[in-house]
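Quick one: structure tokens for this chain, please?
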Amino acid sequence: MPRDRSHIESTLRLGAAEPSAEFSAAMKKLLSTYHSAIKPMEQAFKYNELRQHEVTDGEVTSKPMVLFLGPWSVGKSSMINYLLGLHGTSQQLYTGAEPTTSEYTVIMHGEKFKTIEGIVMAADSSRSFSPLEKFGQGFLERLVGVEMPHKLLERVTFVDTPGIIENRKQQERGYPYNEVCQWFIDRADLIFLVFDPTKLDVGGELEMLFKQMKGRESQIRLILNKADSLTTQDLMRVYGALFWSMAPLINATEPPRVYVSSFWPQDYSADTSRGLFIKEETSLLEDLNQVIENQIENKIAFIRQHGIRVRIHALLVDRYLQTYYDKLGWFSDPYEVFQDIVNDPDKYYIFKSILAKTNVSKFDLPDKEAYQDFFGVNPVSSFKQLSYHCSWSAGCLLEKIERAISHDLPALLSGVSKAPDTPAPTKAAPAPPPPLPGTCEGPGCEEKPKNRWRRQ
């Protein structure tokens, strides 16, 4: 007997109105702040070549992305079919007991049902998937987009992935599997890691996935699917075994939330914990709805964090350059001088000076080894110091990015976080907030680059 799905529409508020004018204005302001204050610094100091993460307009304006990961035949595709109500229709994702999903399938909203080849998706700059072209034609042949009209897809995008098969070598896939997974993990707003209670084996590929998700623990949700295939006693044992298997892999003080249910349209098996499964499913739907509702807040936080990293990178490159010019003598070899600085930055206090003279957390600093590779392909002559990135009319790049991190983006976040039906009380102008982590303000906070075009 098919299961009632009415609670899905009500919990996810699929009958809600279109995005408000305030949402559109906030998104427009966010894009403007990124292009005017952060992107110029990105380009001047070639940040994308350090992190290999290019932020595009399509990524900023895209809907929240939910990524489904896990071993083969655990019910990832069935779960997507269930959430979208596709079972028994011509649009349903193919499922089966054997490994069926060999492609990365992006399910998104469209005016009519159609499939889009990966090559076409990568060539369309208006989408957020154009950077995937760097993984080669072998991967693009395994990337497919599916568009369909659906209320839920108007608010979120699902990504179904090939199942983890522990006895398969990376080379056999024909594309860099770990790098592709990392690309999707970095952009996912929610990561559903799905497991079958009858197979909880942890192998090399799964261990690598957890390493790649380091720092994204708050986005991970563990799904113990097909839970009605076990008795209550066996389910308790499997639940404990899941945590036992995952504990060495999850580097977090608080473990991820685990949802225990059966996500497909058939009714729950008899003599199982039906009430528990219904509550768990409702909790998962509320979790998903929270991510959807917080879309603009998450985008602002993401761009601000990105701006903090770009600022730190620019300060480090500036310190490398300053040290290089200080140490360069009349008869010294420029190449040897700079190589000595890059190979042993601690001898010249490159990173320590950044921590001492700027409000930067040591946990936000990149790896020192990353700059050996960075300067290996980007010669020192291709950069100018921060003091040279100033003009009379536009000011300094560093001042712009710090203003965006300290004031513009927090103000935008505060504005969209206020309830629309709550009038703001009239009060005197508040005192300026203290500096936020990753920013620098106030006298003596850091050595500001002098604007050569303004009288000091």
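The radius of gyration is 25 Å.
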